[in-house]
Amino acid sequence: MKRIFITLAAFLLLTACGDTGDEAQVVEKEVSKVETEETEENQEAQDKDSEQLAETEIDTSMYEYVKNVQVTDAIDINSYESLIIEMNDELTPGMAFQHATNQTYDFLLQDAIQEVDKVGINILLNEQKIAMYEITRNDFVENDDKPMAQLVLDAATVQLMVPEVEQHAEIMELEYKRQ
Question: Can you tell me whether residue 105 is helix, strand or coil?
Answer without folding.
Answer: helix
